[in-house]
Design brief:
By secondary structure, this protein is α+β, with helices and mostly antiparallel strands. It is built from 3 helices and 4 strands, in the order βαββααβ.
């Protein structure tokens, strides 16, 4: 299993809009495309409280490329993203890392 950790750094004040988009739109589209989430987190204490961190679970990088590509080009996603950003940009920066569990990890 490969885990992708994505950190979305929001434009100041726009985290609520991002959370709403995930809850109301993004997760449904991920289900449609077979994308499995492995947890969502907001920053309690850290560099910024305007961040959303989440993990996705993949069988392989090939699976990720195929499913993520279909999601990103889905007309429903493109429309929802544009509508959610009608009041301005939501995300200022995205950082993505691909992780593999260690032999002693409770997550496999």
């Amino acid at each position: 299993m490969i885990y992708e950790m994505r950190v979305y750094r929001c434009v100041p004040g726009r985290l609520p809009a991002l959370l709403k988009r995930f809850e109301n739109v993004t997760l449904k589209l991920w289900e449609k495309h077979g994308i499995r989430q492995a947890g969502f987190f907001t920053t309690l204490i850290g560099e910024s409280n305007q961040e959303l961190t989440y993990f996705l679970a993949w069988e392989s990088l090939a699976e990720r490329e195929a499913k993520w590509g279909k999601f990103m080009t889905d007309p429903d996603w493109m429309k929802a993203r544009a509508e959610s950003e009608a009041d301005g940009q939501i995300v200022g920066n995205i950082v993505s890392q691909f992780l593999t569990p260690t032999a002693f990890s409770s997550v496999k």
